[in-house]
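Intended use. Records like the one below are meant for learning the mapping from a protein sequence to its folded structure. Do not use them to infer anything beyond what is encoded.
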Amino acid sequence: MKSLCALAAAFFCLAPAGAATVPVRFPEGVTHGYLELRSVDGKLLASGDLRQNQKNGEVAKRMWFRFKDGSLWDETVTFTQQKVFRLMSYHHVERGPSFPEAIEVTFDRDTGRYRAKVEDKTDDGKVDMPEDLHNGMTTSLLKNLTPGTFATGHLLVFTPKPYRLDTELRAEGEDKYHVGDVAGTATRYLVKMELPGVVGVVASIVGKDPPDIRYWMTNGPGHGFVKFEGPMFLKGPVWRVELTGPRWPER
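Structure written out for the chain above:
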């Protein structure tokens, strides 16, 4: 890990990548990977799957986790990548005992409409979708940040009414990792979230200070995903997501 002095210098020398969108440096392509979700103490909670393909000029990405207790976390996002990344549609489901509430959320840029169901409460209508909205595509933005820059953006959260979080994405430091006997270095990225101007009951639902989340990406061309650490729902516990591989039956 970098020294405190070097890390402090890196923070103060960062320049903004632009408040609107992140330029495409490494276009997304076809991907299929396997994931594991664990608690911070290492307990395996869920197995996951990530699939991504291209269709009609858009990238379609789906990631889901099936928990040991039968719970489901399922996220599908489509986006374009002509010069910049632009979210087009989003669908998210949470249900089961691992989550405090059953949630299903859908929104679409072309229509400007959303529909959100949280337990027995439903809300729908139109919502403003800024160009730098990045629900479900944060990893793509981080991989494409130019070294020495940071980006700002937005996330939509639902209670079921929609609220917009301000976000800031930046490199925080570097950490060593190993694959077998081979050592590598990953850049650790920090994603900070803020909910400006919200007080009272809404703040108690969303959280006055939304927690920070972190991603680790391999260094070098492409910046591949290594690890995620943070909550995956509002006011949830810190979970860790890492890559894994298939298990083969014994012969």
